[in-house]
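input
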Amino acid sequence: MFERFTDRARSVVKGAVTEAKALQQEKVGTEHLLLAMLDDDPEGAGGGVAGRVLRDAGASADDIRARIKSHLEQGPRGLDEADAEALRQIGIDLDAVRQKIEATFGEGALRPRTRPPSRGLFGLRRRRYIAGGPFSPRAKKVLELSLREALRLKHKYIGTEHVLLGMIREGEGLGVLVLTEAGVELDDLRRRVEVEIRAAAA
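output
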């Protein structure tokens, strides 16, 4: 599939790996793909379609990065107040559970941890990812859907615009969540991408 990716789309995928490392995450998620699209040449004239459309729709790399960090600090899919209230109704106090765990295992025990690179033969650093490679299942799904979007549009290549359409179509990853929190409407975003594609073809 990657042989169909344009140079810019490949650059976004590589950028997502860099973003995941910068955020000390073992897996590349949809949020890292989103950050890489937003960081794709924001000032220059040669930026990819996805980055331009995202910025035109009101998404900014700094805001999205802050929102992602906030979610990562809460841990995987942090529970909101409604979830906490529902658990209190059946006798589970999340704050008490957190306090007990931190008292037993230390402060920050519930935060996701990353593994440092292991040392291989002769002490050389070797990257170590958990089974399945560096991409999360959702990020893999987004990349698969980017191919489907390209085929739907009868394109023989996969560009950043197809990756963004794949993310919108997947619809459930952290990338989409922080976009909607930032006030970006997904239907409007899809429409903007398709308008941009038609304009480029004219």
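quick obs: The two ends are 27 Å apart (CA to CA).
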